[in-house]
């Protein structure tokens, strides 16, 4: 039953027909009920009018008979009237509710008033109380002298219609009955409503048959009209929409008439054209975007709102050394095999967001990871842009090296020395730290150039640079000051530590050889805060003064300020 009901209400045509049928049924049923009700009232009213006329006619006939002095005929007429099929009972009553003509009270009264026995008394008498003397309907007849009707039921619950009609005491009756009372008697006529009810049932049955026939016709006609004018256009529209959903956007629905369905069809056709135009535009832009993405040298990986990888371009496969299938399988967070790295750098869309540098498989990659959000701020996906900056960084480092180091000795140059010493002196003064510098040059360097040539002089400078790196710490900063002069910045180093380092450097230099040639150096030492200097130039000048002192004292030695 449920499946049948579900099938019935699956289609809009069935729904419309069902709803219309219910409404039409209720409307027709209401009309039939109203018509039947009025018919019943009309039949009952007509029956009541007919019986009223009958009662009046009987009353007038009885009066004529009785005025003629034939009371016994009146009693016989009443008895015969009871045998009429529609008449259940007919009784002539006195005003006290007793049936007349059954005893001698009226005969005696009339004979006494006339003074002679015109009417013979009955031998067999009896009393039949038809209605109680105080019966309200009887009293109403006596008081109003008008006919009264009322409905009642008998012992078998059959409906009865009873009429009480007054028998007036006219002047012609006064000779026998006197004129004391306006009403001489009452006629009681009771009829059965069974035939009337049968007629009403027949009327109801006929109305019901008419209703059934009309409903069948209405359902048939309505079904045909609805299927043709509503269901068929809707099915065409639905089929077209289904085809559109499958990707066929060249759908056109025929427009018939000017009703709501035609406007719907017109709107669908307009929408279909707009969607088709939009689709063509989007397809064109998508092709452009795909061309850009697929030909881009930057790696692009995009996910949907569930975190599933939905886009991997060839550049990403090349940079990561993975196939698109492997990238999708591993998941977005494992693009660089480091989920925490992706999580830490995954931010919302922010114009100020800076890319980060990642070293991955001998490459230096510039990575920009971001969450993609809609206009309501809801995350609808994530993306990672990867750019290979390995060569750029190598070039950058090379340029930095060229701009900060000496080409011959590979030590930091004068420019780097000036910038770094100023920063370290400022830091030492701010945080009350020790800071020392060593300034030295090669003893008799001009002799090497003049005697052995400049190439030999260059090799001497290279040996000095090598020995410098071996003698100092990794945190110390070796610089070529110019020509054969060198400076070492000793961070966090006191005067005592600086002297120790200087002596070690001098000794190692003395012990070294360049092409079997011995090279010595003279070193000047300056230390902060042993000497309170305010700027880097003064600091260097103090160290240079100590160097000059070492040369004055015979070279190959260390002097400190």
Structure description:
With 561 residues, the protein is of the alpha+beta class. The protein folds into three domains: 54-194, Beta-Lactamase; 297-393, 2-Layer Sandwich (Beta-Lactamase), CATH 3.30.450.20; 405-560, Alpha-Beta Plaits, CATH 3.30.70. It is 53% helix and 19% strand. It contains 17 helices and 17 strands. The chain has helices at 2-8, 12-67, 71-81, 105-114, 136-144, 174-177, 194-245, 260-295, 314-320, 324-330, 339-345, 390-404, 414-431, 445-452, 454-471, 495-511, 536-552, and strands at 87-93, 148-153, 159-168, 183-192, 299-303, 309-312, 346-347, 356-360, 363-373, 379-388, 435-442, 477-482, 485-491, 513-514, 517-518, 521-528, 558-560. The strands form four sheets. Strands 5, 6, 7, 8, 9 and 10 form a six-stranded mixed sheet that branches. Strands 12-13-11-16-17 form a five-stranded mixed sheet, with helices on both faces. Strand 12 (477-482) and strand 13 form a beta hairpin. Helix 15 (454-471) packs across helix 16 (495-511). The protein is rod-shaped.
């Amino acid at each position: 039953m449920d499946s049948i009901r579900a099938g019935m209400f699956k289609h809009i045509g069935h729904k419309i027909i069902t709803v219309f049928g219910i409404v039409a049924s209720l409307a027709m049923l209401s009309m039939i009920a109203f018509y039947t009700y009025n018919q019943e009232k009309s039949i009952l009213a007509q029956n009541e009018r007919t019986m009223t006329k009958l009662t009046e006619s009987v009353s007038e006939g009885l009066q004529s008979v009785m005025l003629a002095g034939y009371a016994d005929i009146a009693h016989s007429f009443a008895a015969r009237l009871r045998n009429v099929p529609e008449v259940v009972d007919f009784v002539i009553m006195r005003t006290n509710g007793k049936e007349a003509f059954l005893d001698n009270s009226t005969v005696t009264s009339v004979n006494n008033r006339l003074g002679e026995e015109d009417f013979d008394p009955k031998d067999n008498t009896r009393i039949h109380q038809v209605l109680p003397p105080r019966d309200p309907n009887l009293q109403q007849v006596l008081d109003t002298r008008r006919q009264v009707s009322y409905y009642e039921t008998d012992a078998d619950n059959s409906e009865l219609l009873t009429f009480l009609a007054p028998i007036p005491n006219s002047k012609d009756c006064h000779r026998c009955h006197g004129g004391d009372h306006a009403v001489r008697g009452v006629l009681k006529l009771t009829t059965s409503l069974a035939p009337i009810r049968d007629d009403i049932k027949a009327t109801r049955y006929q109305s019901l048959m008419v209703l059934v026939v009309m409903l069948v016709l209405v359902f048939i006609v309505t079904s045909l009209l609805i299927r043709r004018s509503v269901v068929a256009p809707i099915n065409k529209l639905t089929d077209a929409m289904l085809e559109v959903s499958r990707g066929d956007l060249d759908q056109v629905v025929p427009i018939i008439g000017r009703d709501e369905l035609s406007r719907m069809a017109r709107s669908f056709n307009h929408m279909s054209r707009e969607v088709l135009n939009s689709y063509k535009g989007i397809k064109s832009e998508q092709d452009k975007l795909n061309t850009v993405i697929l030909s881009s040298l930057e790696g692009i990986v995009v996910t949907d709102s569930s975190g599933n990888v939905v886009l991997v371009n060839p550049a990403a496969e090349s940079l990561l050394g993975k196939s698109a299938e492997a990238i999708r399988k591993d998941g977005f967070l494992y693009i660089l095999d480091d989920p925490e790295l992706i999580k830490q750098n995954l931010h919302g869309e922010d114009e100020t967001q800076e890319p980060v540098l990642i070293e991955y498989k001998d490459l230096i990659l510039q990575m920009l990871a971001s969450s993609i959000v809609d206009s309501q701020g809801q995350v609808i996906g994530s993306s990672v842009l990867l750019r290979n900056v390995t060569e750029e960084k190598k070039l950058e480092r090379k340029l930095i090296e060229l701009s900060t180091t000496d080409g011959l000795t590979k030590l930091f140059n004068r420019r780097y020395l000036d910038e770094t010493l100023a920063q370290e002196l400022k830091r030492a003064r701010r945080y009350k730290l020790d800071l020392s510098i060593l300034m030295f040059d090669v003893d008799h360097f001009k002799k090497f150039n003049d005697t052995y040539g400049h190439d030999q002089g260059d090799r001497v400078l290279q040996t000095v640079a090598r020995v410098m790196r071996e003698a100092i710490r990794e945190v110390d900063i070796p610089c070529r000051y110019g020509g054969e002069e060198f400076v070492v910045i000793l961070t966090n180093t006191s005067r005592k530590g600086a002297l120790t380092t200087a002596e070690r450097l001098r000794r190692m230099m003395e012990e070294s050889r360049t092409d079997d040639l011995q090279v010595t150096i003279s070193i000047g030492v300056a230390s902060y805060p042993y000497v309170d200097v305010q700027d880097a130039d003064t600091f260097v000048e103090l160290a240079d003064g100590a160097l000059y002192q070492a040369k004055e004292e015979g070279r190959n030695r260390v002097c400190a300020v």
